[in-house]
Amino acid sequence: MLQPGSTIGMLGSGQLGRMFALAARRLGYRVNVYSPDNDSPLGQMADVEFVASYDDLDQIRDFARTVDVITYEFENVPAATAQAAEAIVPVRPGQAILEVAQHRVREKSSLRDLGLPVPKFEVIKSVEDLTNAVGVIGTPCVIKSATTGYDGKGQAVVKADSDLAAVWNSLGTKEAILEQFIEFETEFSMIGARGLDGSFTSYGPIENRHHNHILDVSLMPIAYPESARQTAEDALRTVMAKYDVVGVLCIEFFLTKTGNVIVNEIAPRPHNSGHLTIEACECSQFEQQLRAVCGLPLGSSRQHSPAAMANLLGDVWEHGEPDWSKSLENPSSFLHLYGKTNPRVGRKMGHLTYLDKSSEQAAIEVARLRAQIARR
Ligand code: AMP
Predict the structure, then answer these.
(1) What separation in Å is there between the alpha carbon of 374 and the centre of ligand 1?
(2) What is the pTM of this model?
């Protein structure tokens, strides 16, 4: 067990790392960060900052020697980087889940092999493969590049009249996956934490509403049929046990009109949809990540207040610095800013969490507040 006072190494320096560090600092841990970026959300507050490429294995080894355990806040950590670090200190969650989470073909195949419900899919390596697969799966369907796609990037909906050669060329990738289009009713996530001793706890379902392929609002609790919640929790337990995940893992699901649950994707780290656990639950997703990777007992995931979270994208800055007083004067509103300069459209700059009598009411209030904050 790594006691308070130990040093955690974080690969990646974005807002997920920053919120992890806030939880870790409260419990007396030190946090060293490694990432290629200067003046980053976590770099601004880490104990020691390494600014270098993930491919610089000598630097990675030097970094690993300064910490007691390593975790990460994004899943595209190169395999060689994780291996070099793992030769010196534990990396949690380990390599097995990283390999699965960073490649959509491996991800979907392993989920299917575990017996979990995934959309029908085919592997695509050429425009010929695409033509054949569209014949098998039917239209509409969704093509996604196998690597480095997130927030809807590197993907396209294929329709009956789509020009398949143009679709394939626009992806600019060597390998992709073609998926059946799911006519979902809603999207939701479940977030699990698994300890060094195999103990398990989870949050959710958390309902996720997207705008322009980016998460817009999340709310919890949500009254889905118990069978849907159970299927989702079983999926979390299955994946985390199979890959011996020590840490936090999120699964995003589709819920169909007929109540079927289908797995969309997994992320072996805290997730944007779980930010509301900071104010709404006894122990947040970030503290669970800390507890898990340090071998501490997991905390209580119990939710004590209905909540909703709204992302603050760079768009909110369109007409100048937002009017924060609208949030700060409201005791039900909790403002988080990630220390980023340069508010580009679509860039996650911060979020608002709102606590209320019901999560639906919180979702209405948080959206209203975000609109009030933006200058016109
Ligand atoms: P992803 O990057 O896989 O999370 O996809 C981003 C968003 O695209 C999802 O949140 C869905 O709204 C939509 N999407 C992805 N895959 C499918 C699918 N197979 N059927 C319908 N919508 C999808």
Answers:
(1) 28
(2) 0.96
